[in-house]
Design goal:
alpha+beta; 8 strands; disordered N terminus
Length: 159
């Protein structure tokens, strides 16, 4: 049963990534020309994993090129985002319902009683910044509710 649950979460996660990019009309294609410094940084940290690479522009003006490695890490669908210099910007991994902080669950029950969480991720930025990001659909739009590591509400964003 756990394997089925993990597989379904993985499929939802993969579907969600593709639907996020589908909003931009064109789905992303795997990147074949990842800079050597980025690939080496990934191999240094995740040497036993084989990633599928994607590139995209981020930032306020979509002016920062980043490379995203998607891979399975510790039996979880994971993503590592690097800048052009090979610096790890963020690491995200799917989590199970029992890993979500109680405060975050209580907030979701109070404010989004009719919304089921379709995606749950733990995201690490830098060395210490950890957030829990719970994905829900509101009016057929994917929305992310973000909490700090203790489960305190931070913000809600469109995915």
């Amino acid at each position: 049963m756990k394997k089925l649950l993990k597989l379904s979460v993985l499929l939802l996660f993969v579907f969600q990534f593709s639907s996020l990019f589908a909003q931009d009309i064109v789905a992303p294609k795997p990147e074949k020309n990842v800079p050597i410094i980025v690939a080496e940084a990934f191999q240094t940290k995740f040497s036993k994993n084989e990633p599928v690479w994607f590139s995209q522009y981020q930032g306020r003006y979509n002016d920062k090129l980043v490379y995203e490695a998607r891979f399975i890490f510790d039996n979880r669908y994971s993503s590592a985002v690097y800048n052009r210099d090979g610096t790890l910007i963020a690491f995200a991994a799917t989590i199970e319902a029992n890993e979500i902080p109680k405060k975050a669950i209580d907030y979701m029950k109070k404010n989004y009683t009719d919304r089921g969480v379709t995606e749950a991720m733990m995201v690490t930025r830098g060395e210490k910044e950890v957030t829990f990001e719970l994905g829900i659909y509101i009016n057929n739009r994917f929305t992310v509710v973000v909490f700090d590591k203790e489960g305190n509400y931070i913000k809600t964003t469109l995915g």
